[in-house]
């Protein structure tokens, strides 16, 4: 591309401030053009920090940009994402991409209809360590099962403790997509959720069946007083046992890698990607299945 992509940021909360804004401003293929949030007093200092404008409304933001990055609750993202895609804007989506499968499907249909690029920020998948680990698993083959653990106290602290959608939807919605996506990538597509249990403290236990016969489990919580957060994925089979943990600094690395892919897709006119909007729909189906089983 001759010029960097003009990207508008929707949202001005902790994740927008710590990840989206600096990532978009620092990447050579993008420029943070404008910011819009429900509260202008939150959007203005964030925009000023990076020399961006403050949009008075979502429509005004769309008038100024080539792409939109979302850092808002899933229900808001799903609604606004459709409007942005219909205006021909490329999308950077948070996980989960929507509150339910119906809304996720509408979003994907809008993306397909407009022919725009849409990537989901599944942070684990964009790191070089994770890509090399997954490539090694694919080469070896013969994996029979696995497990993922994401144990966090995020909702006990100040940064995300006030996030109403995270309290309402819990760990399944917030970190579940990461765990499900990675198990799916490691062991083959997850066909169905075999069992799901949610404790009153929002500790989730899932059992998953993969195409090809592998079975995996996932344990998820945002309400456990552990520091640092425990993120581990492991598989086992004919070639023994292999595990991968999250290392410090992967958030910035992941966002840079996403923007590399995003800019390349737009420059080449391609829309398919392992972490595109259709991946988000697949994960949303699994989230809905788990919720139904846990009731």
From TrEMBL:
**Keyword line:** Oxidoreductase
Query: Know the name of this protein?
Result: Gfo/Idh/MocA family oxidoreductase
Signal peptide extent: none
Source organism: Amycolatopsis minnesotensis
Does the record's keyword annotation contain rRNA-binding?
Answer: no
One Pfam entry name: GFO_IDH_MocA_C3
Cited InterPro entries: Gfo/Idh/MocA-like_OxRdtase_N, Gfo/Idh/MocA_oxidrdct_glycsds, GFO_IDH_MocA-like_dom, NAD(P)-bd_dom_sf
Q: Where is the Gfo/Idh/MocA-like oxidoreductase N-terminal domain?
A: 5-119
**Can you give the residue ranges of the GFO/IDH/MocA-like oxidoreductase domain?**
163-240
Database matches in PANTHER family? BCDNA.GH03377
The cross-references to Gene3D superfamilies, in alphabetical order and at most eight, read: Dihydrodipicolinate Reductase, domain 2, NAD(P)-binding Rossmann-like Domain
């Amino acid at each position: 591309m001759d010029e960097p992509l003009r990207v508008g940021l929707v949202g001005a909360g902790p994740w927008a401030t710590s990840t989206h804004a600096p990532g978009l401003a620092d990447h050579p293929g993008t420029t943070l053009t404008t910011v819009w949030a429900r509260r202008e007093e939150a959007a203005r200092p964030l925009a000023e920090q990076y020399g961006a404008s403050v949009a008075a409304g979502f429509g005004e933001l769309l008038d100024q940009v080539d792409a939109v990055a979302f850092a808002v609750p899933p229900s808001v993202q799903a609604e606004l994402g459709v409007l942005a895609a219909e205006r021909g804007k490329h999308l950077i989506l948070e996980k989960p991409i929507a509150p339910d499968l119906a809304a996720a499907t509408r979003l994907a249909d809008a993306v397909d209809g407009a022919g725009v690029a849409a990537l989901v920020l599944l942070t684990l998948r964009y790191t070089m360590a994770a890509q090399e680990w997954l490539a090694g698993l694919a080469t070896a083959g013969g994996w029979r099962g696995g497990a993922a653990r994401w144990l966090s106290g995020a909702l006990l602290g100040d940064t995300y403790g006030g996030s109403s959608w995270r309290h309402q939807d819990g760990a399944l919605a917030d970190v579940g997509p990461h765990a499900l996506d990675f198990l799916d990538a490691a062991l083959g597509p997850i066909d169905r959720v075999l069992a799901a249990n949610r404790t009153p403290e929002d500790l989730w236990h899932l059992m998953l069946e993969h195409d090809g016969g592998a079975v995996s489990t996932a344990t998820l919580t945002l309400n456990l007083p552990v520091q640092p957060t425990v993120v581990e994925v492991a598989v086992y089979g004919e070639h023994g046992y292999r595990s991968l943990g999250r290392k410090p600094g992967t958030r910035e690395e992941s966002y840079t890698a996403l923007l590399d892919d995003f800019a390349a897709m737009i420059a080449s006119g391609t829309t398919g990607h392992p972490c595109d909007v259709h991946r988000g729909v697949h994960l949303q189906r699994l989230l809905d299945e788990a919720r139904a089983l846990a009731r």
